[in-house]
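New to this. Look over this protein:
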Amino acid sequence: MATIKFSRDQKTRIVSDIQRYFDKELDQEIGDFDAEFLLDFFSEKVGGVYYNQGLNDARRLLDDKLDTITESFYELEKVTDFD
C-alpha cells in the first residue's frame, strides 16, 4: 500500500478539525504541530485499515455488478433444440 498523503490544503483543514475536536470535546487546546503529528500517527497506524475496507467495498460492488451482467447474458440466451 502506498503511503497516505494529503495535499497541503487537506492537511491544514484536517489539523483544524483535530484542534476543534480537542477544544470542544476534551476542553483542551492542541497546537498545529501536535495536531499534525497526531494526524500522521493515525494515518500510519489505522490508515491501512480504512484503505483495505475501501478496497473490500469496491471489490464487493464489482462482484455484485459482474453477477448482474452474467445474469443478463443468461437472460438473453434463446432456447434451441441444440442445447
The mean pLDDT is 93.
